[in-house]
Specification:
Length: 307
């Protein structure tokens, strides 16, 4: 009742012209200092947002090219090795399989042309889907020819490499088109989303090969951090951040464990470390591709947008 009477009364103390509370509020509301401060803050915030947006846009243009270059590194290195070690590769295939000079030469030639040609097509964005299928065939052919099926570590690395290629194939697929011109499509590109999911799962196999059951603090910490990040990338939660951390972790481990340039050229260990180094670099390219493309439709990050 008191509040109602105050609002109805014309002689209420709260609406007098000389009331000190009204005067103080009015002076503060028209004070030039109180008005200018928010404007300065808004200008500075908008300027910072503009600069950060420009940096993100520039990074988005460069990142896919860096990802593709890292991803095809192992194919490019292996194709060059087929050319440099032409006779050694032919003799190796002939001795291991007893297939004769013709089939051994055909195997080396297919690997040479398929890998270098596929790399050029991926980098030049020329028929990328065909290039990916060529490189898929090369991975499967080498898995059988070099008896990788019986070595679980090499098999998991090859599966991770296939996952990286799936992400390149997903990138080459356009978004789903609308049935009506000028109207954006509300549906998802399901084949692309499932390829991104399969690529994430297969890339995680690389970290299984890095897990070692050793009783040292650094190794235990590496196993725990790597396993957590691997699970986050697989399910698609905080995917871009997790992928970036994995890129940094893999780069450090790759430079430390696979330093092939420190081994003399006459030792066989140099070729093994070189192979592991460039294969890991390709998986790093796959992770960078996840950062560029995003996790896809089949992920927790995408479903969070619908909650």
């Amino acid at each position: 009742m008191t509040y109602f009477r105050l609002r109805r009364s014309k002689k209420s103390p709260g609406i007098r012209r000389g009331c000190p509370c009204v005067t103080s509020v009015t002076e503060q509301s028209i004070s030039p200092i109180a008005v200018r401060k928010p404007k300065r803050t808004n200008v500075s915030l908008s300027h910072d947002r503009f600069e950060s947006t420009q940096v993100i846009r520039k990074g988005k243009h460069v990142l896919p090219h860096v990802a593709r270059l890292c991803l095809i590194a192992t194919f490019l290195e292996d194709g060059i090795r087929m050319w440099v070690q032409w006779n050694e590769q032919r003799e190796y295939m002939d001795m291991n399989w007893g297939c004769g000079k013709f089939l051994a030469t055909s195997f080396v030639l297919i690997n040479l042309l398929g890998q270098i040609g596929g790399c050029v097509m991926v980098l030049g964005q020329l028929k990328v889907s065909i290039a990916c299928w060529i490189l898929f065939a090369i991975v499967i052919l080498q898995t059988i020819a070099y008896s990788v099926l019986w070595d679980i570590q090499f098999l998991l690395r090859n599966l991770a490499l296939i996952g990286a290629l799936l992400l390149v194939l997903a990138e080459s697929r356009g978004e789903a088109r609308s049935l009506f011109a000028g109207i954006p499509s509300l549906g998802e590109n399901k084949p692309k989303s499932f390829m991104q999911l399969a690529g994430r799962i297969l890339l995680a196999f690389m970290f299984i090969t890095l897990i070692r059951f050793e009783l040292s603090f650094m190794q235990i910490l590496q196993d725990i951090v790597g396993s957590i990040l691997m699970v986050l990338v697989t399910i698609g939660y905080k995917t871009k951040l997790s992928s970036l951390i994995l890129v940094a972790l893999l780069t450090i481990l790759n430079l430390y464990h696979n330093a092939w340039w420190t081994i003399p050229s006459y030792k066989p260990l140099r070729d093994f470390l070189k192979y592991d180094f460039f294969q890991t670099l390709s998986v790093i390219g796959g992770l960078l591709m996840i950062v560029s493309l995003g996790p896809g439709g089949v992920s927790m990050d995408e479903h969070k947008k619908k909650w």
